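Before anything else, study the sequence and fold tokens given here and see whether the fold suits the sequence. Record follows:
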Amino acid sequence: MEMGQWFVVAGSFLASGVEMVEALTIVLATGVTRGWRSSLVGVGAALLVLAAGVAALGPALGRVPIDTLRLVVGGLLLVFGIQWWRKALLRYSGLKALHDEEATFAQEREAALRHRRETRAGLDWYAFTLCFKGVLLEGLEVAFIVVTFGATSRALGPASLGALAALILVLLAGLALHRPLSQVPENTLKFAVGIMLSAFGTFWAAEGAGAHWPGADAAILGLIALYLALSYALVRALRNTREAAIP
């Protein structure tokens, strides 16, 4: 594969992995407390909906002129990536609490235990609905990233490969540990994903507007380095501001 396609694989893998860890936490909490059959049926139904959406959206994006697609998708990825990047910077600077999958698991488990059981057609509909919505919402973000990465770079195969690798890794870890993946440095992953999405968004939006990057796809590495340097400066400034505000 070309360098640009490897970037697509890496970006798709990291972004998909973060969303899949969050979805797995919901499924594990529901399965442990309410039973696995209804929970897994909900997961399967959500995956079918996502697969249908990707199958319909992928070919449609492929017919859009490449410059227009890069400009629009680049802008969306830049907004999307900056949101993740901003949250990560606030966490690293101490202005926002770190995300804790153990705490999320406990909250989901407590909510599942409190809710009364309603069984229809052989399914626990609370477990089904909770897993369906959780997997669908997190999966929509994965599908957006995979489809846009693939369509914009004309590399849907590598983008799908990155997401598939993340899915297999998260599932294997979940089966082995049978608990939330609290040891996964999710905040670090979100920071890395925010940087990569912002870099890709900047790169593609500028290309769509007619700019030509020196070094072609290798310019993405320069953008990543630029965002990393800016992150370091912003975290230091935010920490200094927080410490100065403490009496």
In short: The first strand starts at residue 119 and ends at 120. The chain has a mean pLDDT of 78. Strands lie at 119-120, 123-124. The chain has eight helices and two strands.
